Amino acid sequence: MKMREPATTGPLAGLRVLDLSRVLAGPWSTQILGDLGAEVIKIEQPVKGDDTRSWGPPYFDDGMSGEAQSAYYLACNRNKKSVTVDLSKPEGAALIRDLASQSDIVVENFKVGGLKKFGLDAEALRAQNQRLIYCSITGFGPTGPYADRGGYDFLIQGMGGLMSLTGPAVGQPGSEPTKVGVPVIDLFTGLYATISILAALRYRDQTGMGQTIDCALLDTSLAILANQGMNHLIGGVIPKPMGNGHPNVVPYRNFQVADAEVIITVGNDGQYANLCRMLDRTDLVADARYATNSARVENRVDLEEQLGSTLKSWKRNDLLKSMAEHGVPGGPINRVDQAFSDPHVQSRKVVEKHRNANGAEIPFTRFPALLSETPARIRSVPPRLGENTAEVLKERLHLNDEELQDLNARAVIQLFQVDALGSGPVIFLV
């Protein structure tokens, strides 16, 4: 495959991603690749598109575009082009194969074997393009007794053990298996997929060969158990929910003060000594039961009761100020609106506003890592359904207007254009 002139900037400029995924894990990965400069062509079903387009409210509607886009969809589909193709039709599958032959990366999250019947599986596409990196994201992977099952974040949080250690401690109000407030299994799988794709690109640079990547949600769920998983593997511990407590570090939790709750995250013995001096409780440093972290873990109940009693007389802002002065890590428990309005967050310019084709501003959280030489950028807002169908098929596959209209008439593709007044999309459907 010939080298292409980069159409974008960024460390991945010049790479083309064919995104056959939908919902979150796959789109999260391809959005990251897009943020880093890759060209991402998002394939969507005509009329319906990505499921998340309808996952609202809330929706963003500029009053002109003709399509209200869900906040969910907007969260994971910037820096992409939307092309509508019905891959279940032979002509549609042929279009996808032609696009794959020109692509560097394919990302898909169909059920195991779901694309084979269309000739769009890894074996078929890599046979025509040996440099292709084909990343498949499924619930359980293509092997094992659960391979044919569908996988969803909530389900995998339960099956993978995460829910068994999240939530209030046993016996406390509300103590039941609890999922995390955002779909962390999907998000982490998307991150692992991206890391794996970058590793495969490095290998391809060295050998000229692509490869197939198998990412399973259940595998991810076990991997991110981290210290809790290792506590079990090494020590035979079966972790249980501890509320906001930490299984291996004390004091490392929230405490009630006079007017709020405050998080204290003491990570070593020096910070613990600073905390006790700040609270005028040096007796808690001298006591051998609390002198080391291991001792504090063994005696956490007694220690936390004493710290909690002392902290109740403090006001939140006074405590946070004093903690900062004494080198004790911690902070407030913010709502989402408070987190976004935090002065430090604002100084870091985490939120960027970008305009759509009609000039309406849409806020996004930027790519979180700041690269000094090759920064990630938001170059385009999430596309409207099928917005780039004609553009991509003309440019990449050299189809002419007559051929496009014929494919549209047979519902293989769905053409999109802005009307003459620029006030909205015109969808040609037959």
Describe this structure in words.
The chain is an alpha/beta fold. The chain folds into 2 domains: about 280 residues, Rossmann fold (3-Layer(aba) Sandwich); about 80 residues, formyl-coa transferase, domain 3 (2-Layer Sandwich). The protein has 17 helices and 15 strands. The strands form 5 sheets. It has a 6-stranded parallel sheet, sandwiched between helices. A 3-stranded antiparallel sheet has the order 9-10-11, covered by helices on one side. The chain has a two-stranded antiparallel ribbon with strand order 3-4. It is elongated, with a radius of gyration of 26 Å. The relative contact order is 0.13. Keywords: Transferase. This is Crotonobetainyl-CoA:carnitine CoA-transferase CaiB.
Write the layout of secondary structure elements.
Layout: E1 16-20, H1 25-35, E2 39-44, E3 59-60, E4 69-70, H2 71-75, E5 81-84, H3 90-101, E6 105-108, H4 122-128, E7 133-138, H5 153-159, H6 184-207, E8 212-216, H7 217-223, H8 226-235, E9 252-256, E10 261-265, H9 269-278, H10 283-286, H11 293-298, H12 300-311, H13 316-326, E11 330-332, H14 336-341, H15 343-347, E12 351-355, E13 361-365, H16 389-397, H17 401-409, E14 415-418, E15 425-428
Parallel strand pairs: 1-2, 1-6, 2-5, 6-7, 7-8
Antiparallel strand pairs: 3-4, 9-10, 10-11, 12-13, 14-15
Helix pairs in contact: 1-6, 6-7
InterPro entries: CoA-transferase_III_domain, CoA-Trfase_fam_III, CoA-Trfase_III_dom3_sf, CoA-Trfase_III_dom_1_sf
Keywords: Transferase
Pfam family, one: CoA_transf_3
Structural class comes to: alpha/beta
Give the termini separation. Answer: 36 Å
CATH level-1 class of the largest domain: Alpha Beta
Mean pLDDT score: 93
CATH superfamily of the largest domain: Crotonobetainyl-coa:carnitine coa-transferase, domain 1
Strands of the widest sheet, in order across it, are 5-2-1-6-7-8
| CATH overall fold name of the largest domain | Rossmann fold
Which of globular, elongated, flat, extended, rod-shaped describes the shape? Answer: elongated
Low-confidence runs of at least 5 consecutive residues:
1-6, 419-430
What CATH architecture of the largest domain do you see? 3-Layer(aba) Sandwich
Number of strands: 15
- The total count of helices amounts to 17
Largest sheet: 6 strands, parallel
Protein name: Crotonobetainyl-CoA:carnitine CoA-transferase CaiB
InterPro entries: CoA-transferase_III_domain (IPR050483), CoA-Trfase_fam_III (IPR003673), CoA-Trfase_III_dom3_sf (IPR044855), CoA-Trfase_III_dom_1_sf (IPR023606)
Pfam family, one: CoA_transf_3
Keywords: Transferase
